[in-house]
Specification:
The complex is a heterodimer of chains A (359) and B (271). In chain A, 30% of the residues lie in helices and 32% in strands. Chain A is α+β, with helices and mostly antiparallel strands and 359 residues long. In chain A, strands 1, 3, 7, 8, 9, 15 and 16 form a seven-stranded antiparallel β-sheet that branches. In chain A, strands 2, 4, 5, 6 and 12 form a five-stranded antiparallel β-sheet that branches. A four-stranded antiparallel β-sheet of chain A has the order 10-11-13-14, with no helix packed on it. In chain A, helix 1 packs across helix 3 (40-59), helix 2 runs antiparallel to helix 3 (40-59) and helix 5 packs antiparallel against helix 6. Chain A is elongated. Chain B has a domain at 121-262. Chain B has helices at residues 3-28, 34-59, 67-88, 96-112, 127-155, 159-162, 171-204, 212-234, 238-262. In chain B, helix 1 (3-28) packs antiparallel against helix 4 (96-112), helix 2 packs antiparallel against helix 3 and helix 3 packs across helix 5. The longest helix of chain B is centred in the last third of the chain and has 34 residues, at 171-204. The relative contact order of chain B is 0.11. Classes of the chains: A alpha+beta (359), B mainly alpha (271). At the A-B interface, helix 2, strand 5, strand 8 and helix 6 of A face helix 7 and helix 8 of B. The complex binds protoporphyrin IX containing FE. Protoporphyrin IX containing FE (HEM) sits between chains A (14, 17, 20, 49, 52-53, 56, 60, 62, 69, 73, 76, 317) and B (183, 186, 225, 228-229, 232).
Chain lengths: 359, 271
């Protein structure tokens, strides 16, 4: 036991804290320079800081005397633990949902902590459509995206979300992004007589890929792929005025499959080997960023408490010992004698009043 | 820029330059006309406030988008914090001879920057931005006062300057005061990070993303913690303490004004 205690005392060294703070700064700098954001250059110093801090919290008598300081350092340790937990359980992802379509719990791209255990599969919502304000110069401003969903009791809810205002469902936060575009909608009637199906093609992000509005697509259940290109016949986002993102009315599709080349306008159809394809019209799709981290509210609480503790500590510390300037008399002053403060006992170089004015 | 905005800004620059020049001359001649300096700097600040207000009303967004605006609003907040401290802590007044050259440098840079309006990205459309910026300004203001005091401690060791600051409190005492401002700076820096994280969560869907500005401000925070720890742990000399204050200030300054030059991260507002 004695040995253990001695060990903890060693680990609690404040000199070690100094070294570790510098090591951490160095690690952060190295992590910034490398492309991998969370490397061991960050994790190792952070782990050491956590050990040093935990040991210090256990054995340093300073913390008993200064509760504010204790609260602050406890908060720091809590934040470290929460961040670790967050990295192990977070989820980051993207998904594109066409207007009028539902998100059904599956993401297109995702990365996450190895212990992520959220219930994304149970999350669903419908993208009811969006408006994006554009300033002159095709600068994207606010996005207003209406979404709807049903809660557990079956009641329908709607909400307008945006880049800064997420839809939060089961801890998953859905944000709109700059990634959005047009989506032609088709009805596909298979030749074998099975049920007709609706499908949409998400063309590349607009206006980013203004000149590449094409994609390959395979109708639901079919084998043969076709190539779809959108040709816009009007100016969607005039560069010189305020505008709103919307699907263009004047447009047509260029379809290519096998050696066929076909122009389609809304309502037109085309016979293919495996079925009949009807172009219903153009809609939009929104690319959502999805983020899950259950720790964020706890992190905020810990950080707020920590700062309050720090404020408390310094408030108490400085009130206990208000700052009193100490002066030493220069040779010149001692010579003149007259300017020394008469109330101060001889030999004391501490003066109560401030000779603020020079000369 | 609108005529009024230019006239007011030039008036402000003139006030700051006259006030600063008077302060520096006063310290050199060992006769600091404290009230005149205060009056000139306060006049500069009033004109500067008016100039910023005219611009804000004209553009509909605050001074935080372009380098010109960021420099201008930081000069403004530096001056505001420094003048309040100047007024409340007479002992700090000679530090104006150290603080004002920093302001002059920023003013020169501001005058060279492009003063055209910037575009407000949708991510900037939040109250948290104001809170974040407010804390950042308080943080850097506190640090500026600390650096003024640290500058006195360091200059005292140079022969020509020793006499100029002879009648101020001993360096030990000045360092103690400087570290009180450093402590308050740490509180505001921490609040800035918290407010920034809340903003980032909403603006970019993550509370922390190691973008260069975030990374460097975190390193600044660590160095600030290091300085405060060193002071209680190793009880360094006033000179060493002062060097650390200057180090933290330089790092914070480079983070604020240097990183936007080398970064194209979202934090810069380039979307
Ligand atoms: C690495 C682990 C850390 C340990 C073991 C630790 C430990 C301590 C201890 C024991 C004290 C009291 C010193 C005294 O008054 O004698 C202290 C003070 C302090 N620590 Fe830490 N600390 C750690 C990390 C940090 C970090 C990351 C910060 C970040 C800002 C920080 C900020 C402070 C502050 C502001 C004080 C008060 C100094 C003063 O009173 O002026 N500490 N720390």
């Amino acid at each position: 036991m004695g040995l253990l205690w001695q060990g903890i005392h060693r680990l609690a060294s404040l000199r070690l804290t100094l070294v570790l703070l510098l090591l951490l700064a160095l690690g952060v700098w190295l992590a910034l320079r490398s492309e991998l954001r969370t490397t061991w250059t960050l994790v190792v110093p952070l782990a050491l800081v956590a050990i040093n801090l935990a040991a210090s919290l256990l054995v340093s008598p300073v913390f008993r005397r200064h509760p504010g300081l204790l609260v602050f350092h406890l908060a720091l340790l809590t934040i470290l633990l929460l961040v670790t937990a967050g990295r192990l359980t977070y989820l980051n992802g993207h998904v594109d949902v066409a207007t009028g379509q539902a998100f059904e719990g599956r993401l297109t791209v995702q990365d996450g902590g190895s212990w992520h255990a959220g219930d994304l599969a149970s999350v669903s919502f419908v993208n009811e459509g969006f408006i994006i304000d554009y300033s002159p110069g095709q600068r994207r401003d606010r996005t207003h995206n209406r979404v709807s969903w049903h809660d557990a009791s079956g009641e329908r809810h709607t909400m307008v979300i945006g880049d800064n205002t997420p839809l939060v469902r089961e801890g998953y936060r859905f944000y709109t992004t700059h990634n959005k575009g047009f989506a032609p909608i088709f009805i596909w009637e298979p030749a074998d007589g099975s049920r007709p199906q609706r499908g949409s093609v998400h063309l590349p992000s607009y206006p980013l890929n203004d000149y590449r509005q094409a994609a390959e697509w395979t109708p639901p259940g079919a084998e043969q792929a076709l190539w779809v290109m959108l040709e816009i016949e009007e100016e969607v986002l005039p560069a010189d005025q305020v505008a709103h993102f919307r699907a263009p009315e004047a447009h047509h599709l260029l379809l290519r499959f096998d050696n066929n080349r076909q122009i389609l306008r809304p309502g037109d159809g085309v016979e293919m080997a495996e079925g009949y394809l009807t172009y219903m019209g153009l809609t939009t799709w929104m690319g959502y960023r999805v983020y899950y981290d259950w720790t964020i509210h706890w992190l905020f609480a810990a950080a707020a408490l920590g700062v309050a503790g720090l404020g408390w500590h310094y408030w108490a510390k400085y009130n206990r010992r208000p700052w009193r300037p100490r002066y030493v008399e220069s040779e010149a002053l001692r010579h003149r004698g007259a300017q020394t403060d008469a109330n101060v006992p001889a030999g004391d170089d501490t003066r109560a009043s401030l000779p603020s004015r020079q000369g | 820029m609108e005529l009024w905005e230019v006239v007011l800004l030039w008036g402000a620059v003139l006030g700051y330059v006259l006030g600063g020049a008077t302060a520096i001359t006063g310290v050199v001649l060992k006769r600091l006309p404290e009230r005149s300096v205060l009056a000139l700097l306060a006049l500069g600040l009033a004109l500067h406030t008016a100039s910023l207000a005219v611009r804000w009303v004209r553009l509909g967004n605050g001074p935080y988008l372009t380098m010109f605006e960021i420099l201008s609003s930081n000069i403004w907040s530096f001056m505001l914090v420094f003048l309040i401290v100047y007024w409340r802590y007479p002992v700090v007044r000679p530090a104006s001879a150290i603080v004002m050259p920093v302001i002059f440098t920023m003013m020169g840079w501001m005058k060279l920057s492009d003063n055209h309006p910037g575009h407000l990205p949708s991510q900037y459309d939040t109250t948290w931005l104001f809170i974040h910026i407010g804390f950042a300004k308080l943080f850097s203001g506190m640090l500026l006062v600390a650096v003024g005091l640290a500058g006195i401690i360091l200059l005292r060791h140079l022969q020509p300057a020793r006499e100029r600051f002879a009648r101020l409190p001993v360096s030990d005492s000045l360092a103690e005061l400087a570290y009180r401002f450093m402590a308050v700076a740490l509180i505001f820096h921490s609040l800035m990070l918290v407010a920034g994280a809340i903003w980032a969560q909403d603006a970019w869907g993550r509370y922390w993303g190691w973008d260069p500005l975030e990374t460097w401000s975190f390193i600044t925070w660590l160095l600030l913690a290091f300085a405060l720890h060193l002071r209680v742990t190793l009880k360094p000399s006033p000179q060493t303490s002062a060097v650390l204050v200057v180090g933290v200030f330089v790092l914070a300054f480079l983070t604020f004004f240097g990183v936007p030059f080398v970064s194209v991260s979202p934090h810069k507002g380039m979307m």
